[in-house]
Design brief:
The chain is mainly alpha-helical. It is built from five helices and no strands. The protein has one domain.
Length: 78
């Protein structure tokens, strides 16, 4: 899940090309010991989809804990 979130925040490449664009240093930083297969990525994506409510709830808790929520919203009318 960390790799998928990192991809969306940084590179935003398609899942089938993700491992081609992800440096080994980033994988080590995210806690991966060795190479990852595309099959593993798709399996994780399927599990996330099945548990989307739990994932979103924990994400919301995390952004609150990190003080990333701002009560002020700025609407862009451009």
């Amino acid at each position: 899940m960390k790799l998928l979130i990192s991809n969306k925040l940084n590179q935003s490449v398609s899942l089938n090309k993700l491992l081609d664009f992800t440096p080994d240093e980033l994988l080590k930083t995210l806690g991966f010991g060795g190479k990852i297969s595309n099959r593993s990525l798709y399996r994780v994506l399927e599990r996330i989809g099945e548990r989307q409510l739990v994932v979103m709830e924990r994400f919301q808790q995390w952004i609150l804990h990190q003080n990333l929520v701002d009560p002020t919203q700025f609407v862009d009318f451009s």
